[in-house]
Design a protein that fits this description.
The complex is a heterotrimer of chains A (about 700), B (about 300) and C (about 325). Chain A is an alpha/beta fold and about 700 residues long. Chain A has 26 helices and 25 strands. The longest helix of chain A has 18 residues. Classes of the chains: A alpha/beta (about 700), B mainly alpha (about 300), C mainly alpha (about 325). The structure holds iron/sulfur cluster (2 copies).
Chain lengths: ~700, ~300, ~325
């Protein structure tokens, strides 16, 4: 090693939080070493303490948090823990910069962007206004903010999420800091935006020779960006290694579980179950005495519960905290075949009676030309003023069919209208046009007008289990209610059936008595799934059911959904922004852009040419959790045009990298049919698309 | 099913009781309110001279109360210029203020919550129209509206025993309810709006639950904490209003032992003669309002953080 | 901006319409005959009642009555005062309103800066000693009805201190009542004003300072405050530029709303101090059954409040870039 001190050198750092008067150590014995020019990843799930670490490293813990004595925290050789407030301010101003997660909240809403950015510059050095302005323009240009002069004159709320995040990055880079701490800077952004920002970030960091600590929960981002990775769990380091090593030969059972629980792009439920980590992370108040991962570890032995495994330093410089890593490293996770492929318990089609006579491939649900316009705030006042603002065309003429017992995946960026489409189908939103048929029956507009029969046949699993269960209703009551209401069961029978349903979602019977705040996120979602299944529906609409869950919990829920479908044959309309998740669970996938479908096809067809140019960009933007993998990204501009003011012709033409000319702006593209129901809506013929896109893929592999 | 839900709400209140005790101020407030409640309920038994207009004592006797010696004496708060025992009158006065302010609060909270829940859940133009009407009503200062209403009703003559006469007798109760229903409705509405968009309400809609079920079974439990907080706040304002109206001469009529009225009867020139006849009822009002405010602060702290 | 203004004005007129309807109908929908009330209740003879009915146009259909009433109000034609012989409601109310406005202005000048300072201090020291002391102060002040504070002030300041030698030498600055001539000039009135204004200040103090405190605490928790601090600028600058600026903006609205409070409070305070303002006039009007006068006073009050809210909203929108003006 070189004689020069590490840029950041942390040893034995313990951070506590005060909870109800007691100080609880949220992060224990943390260490890291970071060199200039290095990007170090810090991966952990929610509650692992990763954001706490970021703030502690900055010495900016809130009043109820503190760094315990005994550890060291050195920045460029200086002890940060000993710095006075004035010295710290100096360091914050010039040398260490922080990029926060939620850029929208991190910018002052009532000060113009330009003033906020130059304020940072003037805190660092005495420079005049003109010079500051010039430097700001340079850094805005560096982070690829379009039209920097105008951006500087705007207020934060006038920018899109992607632009706001670029501003916070510019804010951090403008003083050429030595150390950058980034806390989930791309979480919450669309993949396309994320890809563009990460791409820029990688170059900027390389140019500047700064050290970067990059905190995230997203393994794909880590693999694509970082050289070394620390894996954090329940406040302790589990493992540290180079990115290449970590993804190829993960040593720790937790790392192994984490990596294998993320569905690979193109991995399907048909091939194998996802490798899920059982259980939930321990809570801060009840951290186990031995190995913190013991309760969920497949390799746990007696010793793990009694003794805390030490953080071992290995010859190659990597770190590991596990008694059995030498054995576990050679036990790579075996893909398990999907469970219960014994044939469906219920014959398809389900309880359709005489109404339904088609074969398995016939559609369960037919949506024709569905559309939804949202009038823009038409309040009484506006009625009186007779102001009629242009409506938002959230869903604009969508044709869709879901086959019995199958999963139709629906993907698109936020603002594409996918959630509205789902709500039209379930009837929470009333459609303005088009028709909807379930098993050949016409389905009424709104849930309020639908018959008991239709209601019981379409159910929904919501995005946020935090909100989808009533805090004043126990899990058992939540599941019993649809049994009584929609299946007409007597209370006693419902009671028994509710327990059976809990069993089907792998929850023990005593969960029936629990209130939502006594359940973890994953458990809540299981209860919500059991509730949706209670009425024995034919179609379940899943609106981002796993996006609020941690990776390790997410895979278990995905497995459960796949398994339940297998057993009962319900069809899913599965909505997600995450293409790998959709790819795993779906049989067919529809891609949505600005209220219209751009492409529909078999799940396998969607991940290979010909793609719709938009799908192509989406697929290329996915961060793959494998450092060896690098695709040439197709970068789109951040800004989705407003649905109030849609582009003419092809809606994608403002961002399309393959735009062929004026025709794209003038004429709506036709649907082009490929094999097996694959359809793409583009002016470029499929064959041509295929050749263009093949070339790219081939170039890639070469 | 209901019992479990009730117990859930109850558990929240137990938590709140715990939190009350952890904050000494709110515990003191709650105890003081309880003390006044006892006075209100058993005033006739507790007062040494249960007839509020008992003028059999010597007039203008100074208070015999000696706090240091814990000694009450014959007339702890003295007697007024008509020879009435101020101590008994203050005790007897607790009843009417609690009855009017309490009942008024109860009525306005019940009716206001129902209205607010309905508006919040229903939304649309009905909500918009009622909301605007409420805004308009709230633009008129409460005391002003109360004065005008009381002034009008008092000057109307009704047949004794008719419902109008009964109404006129309870005009202050009526005024409190009318004034506070829109305010409570507004609070209930915004709490409901917040809950309405939660996905568990949509889950209930997707099962085809009736409006009443959704409002009362799904939404209400989550709104109850804010309603309780609002109720305690309304109660303190109601006491304020009743006392102010009494003071201005628009509340109870002499010789009733209304605290506000007592303050008014003994101000001006009489103040120099019998300051105690003004000070003790004034003190009673102040202590009661402070107590209610401390209590409602405690309730707010407990319910709005936890649940 | 134009659209916002248009919308806001529409809302203003709508509210105005509704409040005026409320005030108008208060006298109409209640059981009983307003003419009889005005004529003197039970003792009034049938002829008197009939005469008043005709005079007030009570025989016309309700909508027509409403329209002519509003027309009369807008035209400054508010009728004769019954409570005081020979006076005109319009002149009387304008004179008294000006007095009340002086009182309110002094009260606002005293209470707004004071409560903002207290609220900001309490917010910056959340749950520390200064906050606890300020909270106790505001809580006890908010708990005292205006007539109690008013009487105590008269008692302590005017009667006790007022009779001290020092106060005697200062002369008329310690009057025991504020019953000045209704047509006195502002200079003449000032000595009589400050005590009732102080009582009114106490009413507003608690309200504004508590909301300010909450605003400051909320702002301090914002992510952008952290962003600002991590820019390395001094904490004082962070507070001024990033915390107070956003925290104090809503106070504009709060002050407008508290004007409605102030008016309620002034009714009682004017009565206690015997100050010749609109509030004491209202009480006299109601005591003497002058319902037309009371009605006109209510309309004037509502007008003031609605205008205050209108201006506050516009000012807020102008100062706050977050409000969508489009
Ligand atoms: S120490 Fe034991 S429990 Fe912990 S990860 Fe290793 S094998 Fe599993
Ligand atoms: S039609 Fe034109 S703009 Fe649209 S996706 Fe195809 S090539 Fe791109």
């Amino acid at each position: 090693m070189t004689a020069a001190p590490h840029l950041l050198d942390v040893e034995g750092l313990t951070i506590s939080y005060q909870v109800k008067g007691r100080w609880l150590p949220a992060v224990r014995d943390f260490r890291l070493q970071l060199r200039r020019g290095q990007i170090l990843g810090l991966v952990g799930e929610s509650g692992s303490g990763k954001s706490t670490i970021a703030l502690a490293l900055l010495r900016y813990l809130s009043g109820n948090g503190r760094v315990e004595g005994g550890g060291t925290l050195r920045f460029a050789g200086d002890d940060l823990l000993r710095k006075s407030d004035a010295e710290l301010r100096q360091i914050w101003a010039e040398r260490i910069k922080f990029v926060p997660q939620n850029a929208g909240a991190a910018l002052n809403p009532s000060i113009k962007i330009g003033a906020q950015v130059t304020e940072a510059l003037r805190a660092a050095s005495d420079i005049d206004r003109g010079e500051a302005q010039a430097r700001m323009m340079r850094v805005f240009h560096d982070v690829r903010l379009v039209d920097p002069e105008r951006v500087a004159q705007r207020y934060p709320h006038e920018l899109s999420g992607g632009m706001q995040q670029r501003v916070t990055i510019a804010l951090a880079l403008i003083c050429n800091p030595e150390l950058l701490i980034m806390d989930e800077p791309t979480t919450g952004l669309d993949v396309t935006t994320e890809a563009a920002i990460l791409d820029r970030l990688r170059n900027l960091i390389a140019e500047r020779e700064a050290g970067v600590l990059y905190i995230t929960h997203n393994l794909g981002v880590v693999a694509q960006l970082c050289q070394r990775v620390i894996v954090l769990y329940a406040g302790e380091i589990m493992e540290e290694a180079t990115a290449l090593d970590l993804f190829q030969r993960p040593k720790h059972p937790y790392t192994q579980g984490l990596i294998s629980s993320v569905p690979q792009l193109g991995q399907s439920k048909r091939a194998a179950q996802l490798q899920a980590i059982a259980g939930n992370p321990p809570s801060l108040t009840r951290t186990p005495g031995g190995c913190v991962f013991a309760d969920r570890c497949p390799a746990v032995i007696e010793r793990c519960r009694e003794q805390k495994p030490p953080l071992e330093k290995l010859g190659d410089g990597s770190l590991i905290r596990c008694f059995r890593w030498e054995e576990t490293i050679s036990m790579p996770p075996v893909p398990r075949p999907p469970q219960g492929r014994k044939g469906r318990k219920k014959p398809l089609p389900l309880n359709g009676g005489g109404v339904w006579g088609g074969g398995v491939e016939s559609a369960l649900l037919h949506a024709k030309n569905l559309s939804k316009l949202f009038p823009v705030a038409r309040s009484l006042r506006e009625l009186l003023a007779r102001v009629e603002p242009a409506p938002i065309r959230a869903v604009d003429g969508v044709d869709l069919h879901v086959r019995a017992g199958q999963t139709l995946g629906l993907v698109g960026e936020s603002g594409s209208g996918k959630t509205t489409l789902a709500r039209l189908i379930i009837g929470l939103e009333e459609r303005d046009g088009g028709s909807l048929e379930l098993l050949g029956m016409d389905v009424r507009n709104s849930v309020r007008d639908r018959s008991q029969d239709v209601l019981s046949k379409i159910q929904m699993v919501f995005q946020n289990p935090q909100n989808s269960l009533n805090p004043y209703v126990t899990a058992g009551q939540a599941i019993r209610r649809p049994l009584i209401k929609l299946r007409g069961m007597a209370p006693a029978a419902a009671e028994a059936e509710a327990l059976a349903l809990l069993g089907r979602v792998n929850l023990r019977p005593e969960y029936a008595e629990r209130y939502p705040d006594e359940l973890s996120g994953g458990e809540k979602q299981r209860v919500a799934i059991a509730r949706a299944f209670a009425s024995d529906p034919d179609l379940i609409i899943c609106d981002e059911p796993v996006s609020a869950l941690d990776v390790s919990v997410q895979s278990a829920v995905l497995n459960l959904l796949a398994q339940l479908q297998d057993e009962g044959g319900a069809a899913y309309l599965f909505i997600s922004h995450d293409l790998s998740v959709v790819g795993y669970l779906a049989d067919r996938i529809a891609v949505m852009y600005l209220g219209q479908l751009a492409e529909v096809g078999d799940a396998r067809q969607l991940f290979q040419p010909p793609y719709h140019p938009y799908t192509e960009a989406l697929v290329s933007a996915i961060p793959i959790p494998d450092p060896r993998h690098s695709t040439e990204r197709i970068l789109l501009s951040d800004d989705l045009p407003s649905a109030q003011n849609l582009p003419s012709g092809c809606r994608f033409h403002t961002r399309c990298p393959r735009k062929i000319g004026e025709i794209c702006e003038r004429e709506e593209p036709p649907w082009r049919a490929g094999d097996g129901g694959h359809r793409i809506r583009c002016h470029i013929p499929l064959a041509e698309l295929t050749t263009m896109q093949r070339r790219l893929t081939l170039a890639d592999e070469a | 099913m209901r019992s479990v839900r009730v117990s859930r709400v109850y558990a929240a209140f137990k938590r709140s009781a715990g939190a009350q005790l952890r904050h000494p101020q709110s515990a003191v407030g709650t105890l003081a309110v309880a003390f006044f409640l006892v006075l209100a309920l058993f005033g006739a038994q507790l007062a040494p001279h249960p007839n509020p207009n008992d003028q059999s004592h010597a007039a203008r006797l100074p208070p015999t109360l000696d706090i240091g010696a814990l000694h009450l004496g014959e007339h702890p708060f003295g007697t007024d210029r008509l020879g009435r025992d101020v101590y008994s009158r203050v005790i007897l006065g607790a009843g009417s203020i609690f009855r009017i302010a309490g009942l008024g609060t109860l009525i306005s909270v019940l009716a206001g919550s129902a209205l607010g829940l309905f508006m919040g859940y229903q939304g649309g133009w009905i909500d918009e129209v009622i909301g605007r009407v409420i805004d308009a009503l709230l633009a008129i200062p409460a005391l002003l509206l109360a004065l005008v209403l009381v002034g009008i009703v008092r000057n109307l003559d009704f047949e004794a025993g008719s419902w109008q006469a009964a109404l006129a007798d309870n005009v202050i109760l009526l005024v409190i309810s009318l004034l506070y229903i829109p305010i409570v409705a507004r609070v209930a509405r915004s709490a409901t709006l917040d809950i309405r968009t939660r996905e568990f309400v949509e889950a209930a809609e997707v099962r085809g639950e009736s409006k009443a079920y959704i409002i009362f079974r799904e939404i209400l439990p989550s709104v109850v904490p804010s309603l309780v907080v609002e109720a305690s706040l309304r109660f303190s304002y109601a006491i304020f209003l009743v006392a102010s109206l009494g003071f201005l001469g628009f509340g109870a009529r002499p010789p009733s032992p209304d605290w506000g009225l007592m303050v008014n009867e003994n101000r001006g020139g009489f103040y120099q003669l019998t300051p105690w006849a003004l000070e003790f009822p004034a003190l009673a009002i102040a202590v009661l309002v402070i107590a209610v405010n401390l209590m409602s602060d405690g309730i707010r702290r407990a319910l709005q953080k936890g649940a | 901006m134009l659209l916002f203004l248009r919308r806001r004005f529409l809302f203003f007129f709508f509210t105005y319409l509704l409040s005026s309807l409320t005030i108008f109908f208060l006298l109409r929908i209640l059981p009983g005959d307003p003419a009889r009330v005005i004529a003197g209740g039970r003792e009034a003879t049938a002829e008197q009642v009939a005469e008043i009915r005709a005079e007030l146009g009570l025989n016309a259909p309700l909508p027509a009555q409403y329209i002519s009433w509003v027309g009369n109000f807008l035209g400054g034609n508010w009728g004769d005062t019954i409570a005081f012989r020979g006076a005109q409601n319009y002149d009387l109310i304008i004179e008294r309103s000006l007095n009340s406005a002086r009182l309110a202005a002094v009260a606002l000048l005293m209470s707004v800066p004071l409560s903002l300072v207290l609220g900001v201090i309490a917010g910056l020291f959340e749950n520390k000693l200064p906050d606890i002391l300020i909270s106790l102060l505001t809580l006890s002040v908010v708990s005292l009805p205006e007539f109690v504070t008013g009487l105590f002030l008269i008692n302590i300041v005017a009667l006790r201190w007022g009779s001290s030698d020092l106060a005697q030498s200062l002369g008329w600055w310690f009057p025991s009542s504020s019953a000045v001539r209704a047509d006195a000039s502002f200079g003449e009135m000032l000595p009589a004003l400050w005590l009732p204004a102080f009582a009114a200040t106490l009413v507003m103090l608690a309200y504004i300072s508590r909301l300010t405190r909450a605003g400051v605490i909320e702002e301090l928790k914002r992510d952008y405050v952290r962003t600002a601090a991590l820019k390395g600028i001094p904490w004082r600058t962070v507070i001024w530029r990033h915390v107070l600026r956003n925290a104090l903006l809503p106070t504009i609205t709060v002050i407008a709303i508290s004007i409605s409070w102030l008016i309620s409070g002034l009714v009682v305070i004017e009565y206690v101090f015997g100050f010749p303002g609109l509030g004491s006039l209202l009480i006299t009007a109601i005591e003497r059954r002058d319902l037309l006068l009371a009605q006109a006073i209510a309309m004037v009050t509502v007008t003031v409040i609605l205008f205050a809210n209108l201006f506050a909203d516009i000012a807020y929108a102008l100062l706050n870039p977050r409000v969508e003006l489009a």
